[in-house]
């Protein structure tokens, strides 16, 4: 029952933010919170966090891209998750963060540092 209520609240907040003016929220604060939640071991938390990342990329890709390096460590960690859905959503988010060479090269550089 609590999980269902939390899921409904999350969906409502996501829709509210999605429908808001772009400048009405602090992207930095949102990305810091998402980065923290992306380190969870709980699959529903990871999926919800990745859905937020996708929504923010759809709403304001340029603002997310300016701060995307805040998310990269957590997103790269999600690649090793056991959940296929988490990995799929994660790969999709990373791909959307590297639409051209200007964004792809730094992303790959960060990834190579992890090896």
From TrEMBL:
GO terms for cellular component: endosome membrane; PAS complex. InterPro entries: ARM-like, ARM-type_fold, Vac14. One of its GO terms (biological process) is phosphatidylinositol biosynthetic process. Signal peptide: none annotated. This is Uncharacterized protein. It comes from Coccolithus braarudii.
